[in-house]
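Appendix B. Extra example for self-study. Work through it before the problem class; the solution is given directly after the inputs so you can check yourself.
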Amino acid sequence: MNRSVLFPCVALLVVCGFPLVVHGEELRDSIDHQLAAAWKANGIEPAKPSSDGEFLRRVHLDLLGTIPTHDEAVAFLDDTRADKRKLLIDRLLNDPRFAEHQGEVWDMVLFGRNPPGYGTDKRDEFQAWLRDQFAKNTPYDQWVKAILRAEGNTIDNGAPMYFVQYRNEPEEATQAVTQTFLGVQLQCARCHDHPFEPWTQLDFYGTAAFFARLRVVDIGKKNKLTMYAIGERNTGDVLFTGPTAEQVVGKKGEPVKPKFLQGEPLVEPELSADFKEDRNFPNGKVPPSPKFSRKNQLADWIARPGNPYFARAVANRIWAQFMGRGIVHPVDNMSRSNTPSHPELLDQLARNMVDHKFDLKWYIRELVNSRAYQLSGSGPVEAAMPQWFEQARTRPLSAEELLDAWKVAIGWDGIEKSSGKKASEDRYSPLGSGYLVQFLGRPNNGVGDFQGGLHEHLFLNNGGIGSLLSQSKGGLHHSLLNSKAPWTERVDQLYLAMLSRRPVKDEQERFVEFLSAEENSSGRLQEAIWVLMTCSEFRFNH
Amino acid sequence: MTTTPRPEAQRPAIGHLSRRALLKGTVATASGGALMNWGSLFNSASAAEGVQKQQKRCILLWMNGGVSQFETFDMKPGRPTGGQFRPVSTNLPGIQVCELLPKISQNMDKLAVIRSMRTSQVDHPGGIHLMHTGYSTAANIRFPEIGAVVSKYLGRERSDLPNFIKIFSHGNSGAGFLGPKYLPFSLSPEGRLPTFSTSNRNSELESRRNGLRNFVEDVFAREHKAETARMHREAYEAARRLQNVHQVFNIDDEWEKNRDLYGDSAFGRRCLLARRLIEEGVPFVEVGQSSYDSHADNFVWHRSLLPPMEHAWVGLMTDLEQRGLLKNTLIVWMGEIGRTPRINNRSGRDHYVRSWSTALAGCGVKGGLVYGASDKDGIDVKDNAVTEGDFFATIYQALGIDPKTEHFTGVRPIPIAPFGSEVVKDILA
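Solution. Structure tokens for the complete assembly:
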């Protein structure tokens, strides 16, 4: 078959919705084939492949949450092996920072920057537990089940902390759990049946009924921190008794019973007629397990492979984490009115997720090995998250990523070592979480996300990152200033350390001219480092 | 909640204004919209000044926590819900207000009071979002605050001062889907610039560093067209331009001679600063006062909060009028909620949104008007209920921004004021 015949056939396949999945093909290739078919069908020209420097920085940030060192950059750029990208990916996936970074990403998914309270803003144990799940590559369904079953206490295993934030708020828990783990938004159905989605109030309160018996119990202190456990009563229901139209005045209706979303009602064993519930769980004591746990039934239902929402939701969410936007976007609003851009691809991702037993590391490895992930971020597309994945997305670094990347760039480790002082244990050292989060991470768009603006630049321009512009021994500034190498080489080093690439000709000329204009280059070198720390190329992952 | 540092965290949702909608919006923007670029059109200071006086703008006096309608504009003397203050007559025949508002009572000819607000969010976070955006929160849409919308339609490109300034900021909805360009610039309760606002570099070094940075940004922009990166560059420029205008924020030179006009209070100083900013062409300034959330000791709280507030409010209107700015400056007075008719056992009033009061002044709003009414105990609206949507539609209409102008998030159209909102025409001249 010659090319001119093949092309219309591919287009036809897309139009007719024939399966595009070729059996036996690796997922990374399947992704590329399906995206390419959509480009063709829509007349879209994809960007060129990323340069090595572009790819190197991007994949470091996405997998580890920071940039490579100068030496790592040189080693990769000068590596001539054909499969060096694949080898790099394998190395990064085994780096301990992979687990740390993915743990931080998911911690934000589960708690946000400003969790509802009850001490959940300090949750080191939960964070450590989550990090550990990524370090062990625990299958996603298993650690989600552990969060939802919430066994043990918040100090010894961390997982129960998730429900602590929704203390006495079964409706809030319903919204969060369905949105995060099932990718659907039921909140409209809290007050009325959804006008154009299948969700009814019975769906909402049917789910809330699983949480109605949960209690957050303070079971004592350990290391000066309150230990919480999630208790579950044997009785108790949601207050909702059904749609208003069905209610009879003066008559108390039957509370809505637990029902799986768009599925069957929960079958519950009857309590014996003489059963009498103890008074509420006393503080200081581990609450006893209920005779029958609604919560565990829901946890098992949510995280089972056959759940129609669960695998799709996580496949789509992680796709968006690496590719920019979700195939359904926003990722937590899968609905009839918000359809996928590549429906068959999403079906396949979900299916593969189940087949590979929710192995997130496998999935991430496939994504970042795809040619689509490795497209260039430069090109004519103005959308930061291109609709057809035809160009790499441009995403701002989180406050934590920025800090970590700055520290690598300016050689903070070396400065700390040379100082002879013990390295700080503060995650936000040396800038401190206060300013860093205030200026680069605090939600300011009403729904928990950060948008950068004027305040950020004032912080960067007027001294906020001064402590990173250190001239001390062991750091980038000190080593470049005291180097005997010609400025051309030193500018190469500067660019490699900060932007993970070598400068192009006009960049090198301009920087050499700038840095060599005076006998003492110290001040100018500091300015050049500041420029590269604050520029758009650094601020974004692209 | 959508709360990850996800890739889209900082970018506006897709819905910038469509071209068609922009055209509609601009046409409807009687004097303002067509002048979005006015700053660059005029070289002559006097011509610019003339246009600037035409330019519509808005000051929001934000009564955080929820000011009581019963202790301000909707008294119920002699009723069980009436409370302990007495009504006083005003310069409008037959209209009374609370004795805590003596200066306002003599300036009612400038105000349109709405006594029939009925809104939908009864708690603080929900109410603060609602009365800053006109919308209830939604998990998948980030609604912009009114200040962001106004700065988009009435703001000046490349002005030294930000287009949306909050003094003692409340609410964090920010620019929502309009994007970081329209984020508020927040000053402290004392009107001070935020930390790190002032450059301590000498201007020669600053400009040398800036030259190199511009070069680096230009190189990146050659190949990278993403709008987030563009907005990042624009915000950097705005941060630098701000260095030129620091003196605007320092009201000390003017305070002595205006102290009596505005009243010697923190709120008075905030209002004077707001007038300065408006005079400099900033299209939207929010001035906050806190906190009216008087679940206990409602009367004590109002007795302490209202006198300085009303003094400053009247001072602000007087000052703007004398400068010829009141006719183009809309003053919006509101909190996020009203307070309960019932006085609780701690002499407090709780949250209430079935019937409460707000007020407007200036910018084509009919003065001397009391619109709508509550019933005899203030429990429900008797006449002409005004929803949050109607209220916002009326505000936008007064500012010359068509409230039906649509933004798009994806394919979903989001009008500036919610669907079905109606402009309260009786309030506008």
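Self-check: The beta strands of chain A are 214-222, 225-232, 395-396, 540-541. If your reasoning did not lead you there, revisit section 3.
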